[in-house]
C-alpha cells in the first residue's frame, strides 16, 4: 500500500502543470541612451528607469499625482515643504529606503558628467533637506516654487548606501548599480538591442502580473509591425500610421491610442552671427545668419502645411500645432488662430529680410525618435524649398542628434517635448541657460530673450495661480511673436498588441511600460 501511495503521488506530481511564467515581450522603437537614471532626461530613458527605480511621486495616465516613495507632501510655508516618506520601500538587495537617500539623490542630479540634458530644474530651488524623523523630511527652498509637486515627480531616488559617492554612468550601464526600489529588477542589457527585467517579488505595491519583461529594440517601423504579426512580440509602440488600418481590420490585434502631451517643433539657431549649415545658393557662407532675423523664422513657420501633414502624412494621428505647448497644457495661450500656411507671405518676408533669392539650409532631426520623424523632415524640407530656401535633410540616430545638438552643431533641428504644463517647456527649452539655477537644460541653441525671461522668472516663483497664468502667457506670447521655436504638430500615441495576450492603458506621456499592460485572462 505504501508503494502504491508513493507511486500515485509521483504520478500526480508529474501530471500537475507547472505554474506558467508570464513573459511580456515589447517591440520598442527607441532604446535608452544610457541606464544611469540621471544621465539624460528623455522619455525613452525615463520609462526604463522608473521600472527599476522610483521617484517620490509620479503622474499617472490621467495626469494626476500618485505617491511612490513619498506618501504625501504639504506646503508648510512658501519656502518649506514637508514630505512624508514610504517607510515600506526597500531596495532590491534589502537595503531600506531612508531620508538621506533623497538628499543624496538631489545632490547628484546636477553633477552627472557629459549629460545631454540633466534633471536639474527639478531640484533647482532646494537649498537644504531637513530630516525630521525617519519618515519625514522638509525641503527648504531659496524662493517659492509653484512647480514643486511636478518637480518631485521627476528624478528617481538612489541609495546613498548602495550607489555611494562615486556612482558613474558606466557603473549603471554595466548593471552593477541597477539596484532600485521599483516593481522590476534589472537582469541584462545589450545596448540598442534588448533589456530584460524580472518582477520584484518584494515590492511594496500591488503584485505585477508579469514575471519577466523583455524589451526588443526595433527602430525600423516595418520590422516592428512584422515582429508583431509574426508573434515574436506581444506589444509594439509608435505604430506606423500606414499599418493602422490593417491592424484595425485584423481581429488578432488590438490598437490602444490616446492624444498625447507631446508636441514637435523646430529649434532655429537665432543667437549666432553666423551658423554652420546655411549658405547662399552657390554654397558659399553668408556674412550674417538669416535665422537671427524673426522675419525669416516666421517665413519658415508660414511655409509649413501643418494641416496637410497631419492629415496626409500622419493620417489623422497628429494635429497642427499652434504654439509651444501641448493642446491640453495648463496656462497655454488662448484664442490663437491656427498658424496659417501662407507661402506667398513667407516669400515676401524673406525678401523683406534681404533674401529675395533665398538661401540654402540643412535641417537635422531624428530617425527613430517618434512616428514618421524622417518623413516629416522631408516634408518640411520640401515646404521650405518651395518658398526659396533650398533645404536638404540629415536624419540621425537620436543619441547622435542630441549630442551634436548639445554641442551647438546645427542651424535648425527638429525634436519634441512632452508636458502637461506650458511653464515647464518654457523654463526647460527656451529660458536663458543658467546651469546654477537649472534654467534651460534643453536650450541647445542658447536662445535668450530678456522680454520672455522676466515674466517667466516671476511665474516660476509665483504661488498665486491666476497671477502665474498671466505671467506664463505673457512669456509664451513673447516667444510666439519672436518665433523663437517653430511649432509643427501635436502627436497622437498608438500601441498595438496581440488581442489574446495583452491590454494596454495608453500613456499620454508616451511611456511604454509593463506597469501599463495587463495580461488577457
UniProtKB/TrEMBL annotation:
UniProt entry keywords in alphabetical sequence: Signal, Transport
Pfam families xref list: SBP_bac_5 (PF00496)
Domain Solute-binding protein family: 65-420
TM region positions: none
Signal peptide: 1-20
Coiled coil start-end: none
Tagged with keyword Signal: yes
InterPro entries in UniProt: Peptide/Ni-bd, SBP_5, SBP_5_dom
Domain of life: Bacteria
Subcellular compartments: Periplasm
Similarity comment text for this entry: Belongs to the bacterial solute-binding protein 5 family.
PANTHER family the UniProt entry points to: OLIGOPEPTIDE-BINDING PROTEIN APPA, PERIPLASMIC BINDING COMPONENT OF ABC TRANSPORTER
Protein name: ABC transporter substrate-binding protein
